[in-house]
Amino acid sequence: MADIRKTAWRQAIVAKKAHRTAEQMAQSQREISVSEFFAKNRHLLGFDNPRKALLTTIKEAVDNSLDACEEGGILPEILVEIEQLEEDRFRVAIEDNDPGIVKAQIPNIFGKLLYGSKFHSRRQSRGQQGIGISAAGLYGQMTVGKGPRIWSKTKRGKMHAFEMQMDLTKNKALITKDEEHASWHRKHGTRFEIDIEASYQRGLRSVDDYIKQTAVANPHAEIRYRAPGMEEPRVYERAIKAVPDLPDEIKPHPYGVELGELMKMLRNTNSRWLSGFLQEEFCRVGPKVAKEIIKAAKLGERSYPSRIARDEANNLFRAIQNTKISSPPTNCLSPIGEDRIREGLMKECDADFYAVSTRPPSVYRGNPFQIEVGIAWGKPGVDQLEVDEKGRIAKKKKKRTIDTEDLLGNADEPVRVLRFANRVPLLFQQSGCGFTKAVTQTSWKNYGLSQSKGALPIGSAVILIHMASVWVPFTSEAKEAIAPYPEILKEVKLALQEAGRKLGSHIRKGKKVASEFQKRSYIEKYLPHVGIGLQEILGISNEEREEIVETLRDTMETTRKI
């Protein structure tokens, strides 16, 4: 009995110690730095395993290089190097010919999370959140203990060399090395280098695959790529010598602003009157539309925006949603273009046929976007038929065998789907992406491809889908899949159907040519035997036999055409 009481007493003591007062709980509360948060949750940014971490590091750096070169009106020349230091340690270096970075901004860009110039900008760009490249430096610091090394030179400035660590509690860079040099091997450009814990593998969803797909979507870029096992860099030459047009920045569209954002804009505006606020802060709102909105909200045109209360702001928000407003302008977009998609596919896919389709710009939640689709179709390593100018079969030829790096797969495998958002390849989470959903929901049997219900079609084909938008609705911070918004799915399906009709026409034509060849082969096969039989029956000479066979061939060819 005494032992039972003693045990109960000890349990009571333990329970009493486990309870905390409000004052004790208050003492343990502190602000969480964004750097600390992502250091513990790096899987959210795409650093959830060594293989994926290597790809994410290179992807973020290459995206920044392409954006910087295009903003500076420079044809990109990018060098990507992967050097294996140990079994699980790699050194990654990305160098480009961008306009360079001024000295004061280098620590912020590479050593501070959520810092950038594109988050608040309403125009198409690859980067959006200001996280990627600094997160790569954070990953290197967490796994290897070394921060990033950066070299950058502007056209008129000196070359600055930095080595840095990241202060996780303050979310800022700690400079460990800062040097200046009068010259560099480039007139202007930037080099980013980092040691990380990683794993390098070839195949699908690898760095090799990412570089190749990037070359497809960016045919104006020259990329030199060297990975472990390569004696010389692999060069992806540019197919087009023109920098894409730089998209313009637009103001927010009224349909894309929620009530809380509208109230914030009302408080911070410099406009004196409500009518001026609507016209100056939003796109597609002129005097007539502003008047309709204000009248529907039962407010005055000369109301002070900063004095509008929550209920009045709610009425204004409702009035905006019920007023017919034109779609936002599309000069904020920079699509790849049909010619460039075809050039990119032809450069990296040895196919028999290419079909490209571009949809007119559309809108989701007030954000303009545009869908582009390209299809490369072919049967690698099989006999192909040539057709002359009159549509007649000229001869049969052997197509060259496609190398192992070609994007086209085998004829008995599902088609390869290449997903792009603002020219950036999306390699992971394919099954959870809205683009894949649109492909599986399209009836490819209508276009000559076999397909099971709810699955990708079967065939030696590549389907490229690109979305150009001022704000891409990714499903996570890792930017690996597109959310299946109904407006986006509709446009993707329409683009796929348009390109599919072109493909279907080509496949039907190919089957017709094959059928014609088969019929002609019957004529060529049996006519000589008919001639021999006639010669034996009629007792004619060899010359007469050949003349009869030729006459029969011409007659049967004419009859076949009719």
Quick structural gist:
This protein is an alpha+beta fold and 562 residues long. The protein has helices at residues 2-18, 22-27, 34-40, 50-71, 106-111, 132-143, 207-217, 259-268, 274-281, 287-296, 310-322, 338-348, 434-441, 486-538, 542-561, and strands at 77-86, 89-96, 149-153, 159-167, 172-181, 189-197, 222-226, 234-236, 353-358, 362-364, 367-377, 383-387, 393-398, 416-421, 424-426, 461-469.
Could you tell me how far the N terminus lies from the C terminus, measured between alpha carbons in angstroms? 111 Å
Strand content: 15-25%
Q: List unreliable stretches of 5+ residues.
A: 380-404
**CATH superfamily of the largest domain, please?**
Histidine kinase-like ATPase, C-terminal domain
Q: How much helical structure, as a percent, in the residues?
A: 25-40%
| Count of β-strands | 16
- Overall mean pLDDT score? 84
- Helix count equals 15
The general outline is: globular
User: Structural class of the helix and strand makeup?
Assistant: alpha+beta
**CATH architecture verdict of the largest domain:** 2-Layer Sandwich
CATH fold topology of the largest domain: Heat Shock Protein 90
Instruction: Please give the radius of gyration in angstroms.
Output: 32 Å
| Major sheet characteristics | 8 strands, mixed
Please indicate the count of domains.
Answer: 4
Q: What is the CATH domain class of the largest domain?
A: Alpha Beta
Strand order of the largest sheet: 5-4-3-6-2-1-7-8
